[in-house]
């Protein structure tokens, strides 16, 4: 059973096919655990669960659950310190998605405009465009990773990866064991973005050239297609992670993760271990969703 995950504010979210587990370290040092049942739309509409389409469906679902987890973790800190709460509803989700799509479009449109200014053609155009996109991405990662307020989130990101790596290795989940594992993981969203860059080079090279406007439209309209293809490649990289070919292809993505993850402290590992243990337990012994502290 492959788990997905995400770093939260002072916590970790782990998602299985049936549950989402969010564990957050409260200001009083307790670990607040929230468990929710989740069901992908692909279970209700089987046709959407086929390869490629499931990747397009997974994108908004992942965004929704990710933002929901961030709001939950923010509330865990704010309610304790200020007695307030951060609302999360369809309006807030819509605003968050609009911002995410705007950033994604920016990463696709700006490199295209810059490369067009250079007046290049053919495959050279696509390679230079991808290089500019990759440069912008690396600059973004470097800026985020150097932001002091975000450092703890990056540590929790590393804790999440370590706990999942330990689970997949089959070792007992305790701090001493988990801290020995890598903070890098081939199924991470950072690797996913690198795969997107490579897929975009190939796909844009195959599209006919009907002029500037059409080529610009491709960069936006084909984002779901690129995401669907990249999702399948990411799944394959996780399934065949020990293959020499896979290791070569995933190496750049793992390199980028050195910017998006940091070595966690022992108390952070405790949070990630609890989240992974709960997700694993619920996978084999499903229970009702709920909230608890420990």
Task: Write structural notes for this entry.
This protein starts with a strand and ends with a strand. Strands 1-2-3-4-5 form a 5-stranded antiparallel β-sheet, with helices on both faces. It contains 11 helices and 5 strands. The protein has one domain. By secondary structure, it is an alpha+beta fold. The model has no long low-confidence stretch (mean pLDDT 83). α2 (53-82) crosses α9 (223-239), α4 (122-145) packs antiparallel against α7 and α5 (151-169) packs across α11 (266-284). The protein has helices at residues 41-44, 53-82, 90-117, 122-145, 151-169, 175-178, 189-206, 212-221, 223-239, 244-260, 266-284, and strands spanning 4-8, 11-15, 19-25, 31-37, 290-293.
Task: Give a brief outline of the structure.
This protein is of the alpha+beta class. It has helices spanning 41-44, 53-82, 90-117, 122-145, 151-169, 175-178, 189-206, 212-221, 223-239, 244-260, 266-284, and strands at residues 4-8, 11-15, 19-25, 31-37, 290-293.
What are the segments in which pLDDT stays under 50 over at least 5 consecutive residues?
none
Q: Please state the CA-atom Rg, rounded to the nearest Å.
A: 20 Å
Number of contiguous helices: 11
Cα shape: globular
């Amino acid at each position: 059973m492959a788990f997905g995950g995400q770093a939260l504010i002072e916590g970790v979210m782990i998602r299985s096919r049936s549950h989402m587990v969010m564990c957050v370290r409260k200001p009083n040092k307790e670990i607040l655990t929230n468990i929710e049942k989740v069901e992908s739309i692909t279970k209700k509409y089987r046709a959407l669960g086929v390869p490629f389409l499931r990747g397009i469906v997974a994108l908004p679902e992942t965004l929704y659950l990710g933002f929901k987890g961030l709001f939950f973790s923010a509330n865990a800190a704010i309610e304790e310190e200020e007695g307030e709460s951060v609302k999360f509803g369809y309006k807030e989700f819509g605003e968050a998605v609009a911002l995410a799509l705007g950033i994604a479009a920016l990463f696709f449109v700006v490199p295209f405009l810059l490369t067009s200014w250079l007046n290049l053609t053919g495959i050279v155009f696509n390679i230079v465009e991808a290089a500019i996109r990759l440069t912008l991405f690396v600059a973004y990662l470097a800026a985020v990773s150097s932001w002091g307020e975000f450092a703890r989130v990056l540590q929790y990101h590393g804790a999440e990866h370590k706990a999942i790596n330990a689970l997949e290795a089959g070792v007992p989940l305790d701090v001493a064991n988990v801290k020995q594992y890598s903070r890098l993981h081939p199924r991470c969203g950072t690797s996913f973005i690198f795969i997107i860059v490579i897929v975009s080079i190939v796909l844009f090279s195959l599209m006919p050239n009907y002029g500037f406007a059409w080529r610009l439209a491709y960069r936006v309209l084909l984002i779901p297609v690129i995401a669907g293809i990249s999702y399948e490649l990411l799944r394959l990289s996780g399934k065949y992670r020990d293959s020499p070919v896979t290791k070569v292809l995933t190496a750049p993505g793992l390199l980028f993760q050195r910017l998006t993850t940091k070595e966690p402290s022992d108390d952070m590992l405790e949070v990630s271990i609890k989240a992974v243990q709960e997700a694993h337990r619920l996978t084999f012994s499903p229970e009702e969703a709920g909230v608890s502290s420990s």
